[in-house]
Amino acid sequence: MEHAMRDVVRSSGVTSRTLRHYESVGLLLPSSTAAGGERRYDSAALLRLQRILVLRSLGLGLPAIGRALAAGGDEMEALREHADQLVRERERLETRLAAVRHSIAARENGRDPEMSEMFKGYDHREYEQEVEQRWGKESAKRSNEWWESMSQEKRDGFQHDAAALGQAWTDAAAAGWDPRGEEVQALATRHLDWLRAIPGTPAAGGGEEALRAYVLGLADMYVADPRFAANYGGETGAGFVRATLRAHFGLRD
């Protein structure tokens, strides 16, 4: 059974303009076009649209979504994986929500929130696999040793700095600042200084070229991986961070 574009718009909340854009970039093609030019979508097209919307909600950009869909594979297995991704994202959000509620409750009772509770849901070990894959087990080992050697107070301070940096990026993106502007480039410098403080990474021990490659690789990961993007307010914020860091090294998007 096929559905007219207007019905798909009504059910999905996706605008007709967005559907036409997805078509223009080859992401979602209508199954047929009626004599009057109206696009129609069958069950396979609707399932593909559902997958696009799921991946968008997880923070992936359209190029990354296109690559994921082009990879093929079993459709049911892909849908199950999407369901698992949404469950993991829900769990992360619930952990962060509980941390915010802790802060609210503490303030309402005239207390300072416990820092160890405030930043739950921001665990450096969540990204250990990415560190190993991109920069080797030795880098991951040195970073973990550094983390494990820290007192709880220093860990809390580091997580506080990470959260503050993420919020600064989110605010700058929401304000619509120019990624090449002086204020935002100062934020990029602050970001690089923060990365240099983490032992075992190219930012800490490599030269300028290693730092450049490392930071640009991270910038792409911020956009492609919803776990990273969430630290900067989602895909839009992560894209702003990437554009700013690329501008820092003289590149344009």
Tell me about this structure:
The chain has 253 residues and is mainly α. It folds into two domains: 3-73, Orthogonal Bundle (Multidrug-efflux Transporter Regulator, Chain: A, Domain 2), CATH 1.10.1660.10; 125-248, no CATH class. Helix content is 70%, strand content 3%. The protein has 14 helices and three strands. The protein has a three-stranded antiparallel β-sheet. Strand 2 (32-33) and strand 3 form a beta hairpin. Helix 9 runs antiparallel to helix 10, helix 9 packs across helix 14 and helix 10 (182-196) crosses helix 14. The model has no long low-confidence stretch (mean pLDDT 81).
Write the layout of secondary structure elements.
Blueprint (H helix, E strand, L loop, with lengths): L2 E2 H8 L3 H9 L7 E2 L5 E3 L1 H15 L4 H9 L4 H34 L6 H4 L9 H8 L1 H13 L2 H23 L7 H15 L5 H4 L2 H17 L1 H4 L5 H14 L5
Antiparallel strand pairs: 1-3, 2-3
Helix pairs in contact: 7-8, 9-10, 9-14, 10-14, 12-14
The succession of helices and strands, N to C, reads EHHEEHHHHHHHHHHHH
Strand order of the largest sheet: 1-3-2
Number of domains: 2
Query: Strand share of the residues?
Result: under 5%
Provide the residue-averaged pLDDT.
Answer: 81
Summarize the structure.
Helices cover 70% and strands 3% of the residues. By secondary structure, it is an all-alpha fold.
Features:
globular, mainly alpha, Multidrug-efflux Transporter Regulator, Chain: A, Domain 2, MerR family transcriptional regulator, three-stranded antiparallel β-sheet, DNA-binding transcription factor activity, 253 residues, 14 helices, TipA-like_antibiotic-bd, 3% strand, 2 domains
